[in-house]
Structures are given as C-alpha cells and as structure tokens.
Request: fold
Amino acid sequence: MITRTKRQMLPRVVKVPRKEYFWGTSSRPGKHSRESSVPLLHILRDYLHLGDKEREITRLLNSGFVLIDGKKVKDRRTGVGFMDLVTIVPTSENYRMLYDQRGRLVLRKESDKFSGVKFLRVKNKHTIQDGKTQLSFHDGQNTITDADLKPGDVVTVRLPEKKFEEVLKMQPGSKVFITGGSHVGETATVKKIEVKKSSSANLVEMEEGFETISDYVFVIGSNKFSYELSGEVVK
Reply:
C-alpha cells in the first residue's frame, strides 16, 4: 500500500512546496478522491504550520485536537476536500477548504457565524426501495430524505448534528462559487441556465459576463441565505 509519494507527483490541488522536500503523503481513499483532496498531514504541517515533523502531527491527532466537519479524526492521511470544515480544538479556530484562482485547495479562516455550517451539493438523486429518495453529495456522503432537492442544489447542514437547515436552489439570481474552469475560485451570480437535452452538463451564464458548465457551479447564496467569504486565506 502506498502511503507516501514524491512531492512532484502530488495532485495539483495540493498547495505545498514541491522542491523543498522530497516526500509527500497520499490521501487515503474516502469521501474525497485523491485528486480532489489534501492529506490532513499536509494541512496541519504545511498549511497551518502546527508542527515541523510527522510525529508531531501524529501526536496532535492522537490527542483528539483536530475535527473535520465536527468529527474527531486521527488518521493523518485523511483527505480534506472542498467545503470541508477543519477545527483546531485547543484554539477553537475553524478553517474552510476552498479553491483559489489557480485551482488549488486552500484554507480560509472561517467566521463564527459559519463555523458550525457544512455545505453539501447534491450530485445525484435516486429512487430506492419503498419509493424513498436517496441523495448523493459532492463529498461522497449519502442520505435518505423527502426534501425537495435536485442535482445542483446545495443544502446547509448544522454540525455536528447534521441537521438540514437551508436549501439553496440552482436558479437565476443565486450566488455561486466556481470550482473549476478558467474562472475557478471566483464568485458570481447566475443569470440564465441552458438545459441540455443530451447527457452533457448544463451551461450556466453569469451576470459577470462569462459561462461555465453546471458541474463547476456551487451555490452559496439565495434570497434568504448567503455565505460570506470574509476570512483571510492561510498562507
């Protein structure tokens, strides 16, 4: 089993120095794919600088001082992906994982207002046994619900209870965060959605004057609720 890899071979979303050290760490298979996540070891050591050595980070994790989406995590290879919330217990600091304008995953200091909120984008919707509806989310989670949601919609969840709160619909007027393409890392407002009759992704036109596919659009605001990117990005 591969537990480490050359830093030059790490996925492009991982923002770490490539030439300063030779070895890096591979994410363990989980909610996020290896190509769309940053191993927790790199988060704590190279992003937040909470230790210089791997054993220091391991000691921190074994002490139960790190939470991801409100859940205690001890595996240093756990992959942290887009919109995950990282909490450092001793300092009560919260960080949100977002894309920067180069397509890399970075940490942004989270405000107290959103420190207990998780954002889940509906990826797929299926009807299962007994006519129940199962939703699959962007981070690999699944749930059975009767909520009126469709692919592209986003639901806010209160942590750690994982209770649904706000439903953010993919529709004209919605505030969105772009997760891919040439406008990755930007926020915009939906102007029009062109629904494709084929299996290809819908085309979304923005009021800011550009278009992108629906797969790259993550809703963060509606008439009633809006997520504010207020904190500074961790350097």
User: Anything to note?
Assistant: The radius of gyration is 18 Å. The first strand starts at residue 4 and ends at 6. DSSP finds two helices and 19 strands in the chain.
